[in-house]
Amino acid sequence: MFSISKAHLISWAKEFGCDSVIGQDVCGLLQQALNALSLKVKISAVFNDTVGVLAACAAKDPECGIGLIVSAGTNCCYFERGSRIQKPFAKFACGQELIINTEWGGFGDSGTLQQFMTKYDKEIDAATLTPGKQIFEKMVATLYIGELARLLIVEAASKKLLFNGEIPEKLTHVNSFASQFLFDIDRDPPHIYVSTEVVLRERFKLNLIRRSDAVGVRYICRAVVTRSANLLGAACACLINRMGRRRVTIAVDGAFFRFSSTFPAILVETITQLIPYTYTFKLKLVDDATGKGGAAIIAACKKAIPMQPRFTILG
Length: 315
Description:
Distance between the termini: 5 Å
Structural class: alpha/beta
Oligomer: single chain
Low-confidence stretches: 304-315
Helix content: 40-55%
CATH topology of the largest domain: Hexokinase, domain 1
CATH architecture of the largest domain: 3-Layer(aba) Sandwich
Shape: globular
Strand order of the largest sheet: 5-4-1-2-3-6
Largest sheet: 6 strands, mixed
Mean pLDDT: 89
CATH class of the largest domain: Alpha Beta
């Protein structure tokens, strides 16, 4: 990112593939396309969705310091002190805070997460368009965790731990177990398996569902959600500890926060265990983050509001 309205694409993620765009100014390309259609639209800013959710929340909550998205992919941004910014970006600091877009979906690309990757993670990674890239994202995001749950269920069935050893035909297809099924199953309260049975019967045509099958499938789904929350909670705790704020609001958005009944609580528990007891934090779900955040960013950069912007943006 070279300015508020100029950013070059380094690489694709989330199974997108269009090599001719890599290295290009995405804002400029979009503006050219709009001009070619004679649309009177001017691109004033290009920003990540995490920056949008942070800006939207920070406009109303001065304690907001982190923006977190967990959906098909994951990313996070946070406020960093300008004094910590080194060359060549120090010129942007001016003693203020900067929003740092971490792009933490790519954490682990250097091999730092190898010890935490299971054989299922490696199988999922190998089947993507970008093997060896976006490792952290592939371990926690909704685009991948449904397939992780499917692989676990299929292996359990192959070992006769589920479905009396008979694998449902629909479960043999890659990506047939959508993350929404995982959320539905995880929503079942203890000792009640209504959603689990509905998913298995209606989506995978299992007519005979033993209680042990429902228990096992829900256990797997809960384990997948819990691992995602634990990994993301550890990452959030690192940022809170780095910021050194005693009180911080984490602006959040994405499918995990909107559709999972257990993920937010597990995330909070994990963060709490990994930060000093004198620190406090809260999660705040932000609606229309892109629209509101974009408006706040453009207003701040154009100084359209009667105050000195408290931050600049470093992508």
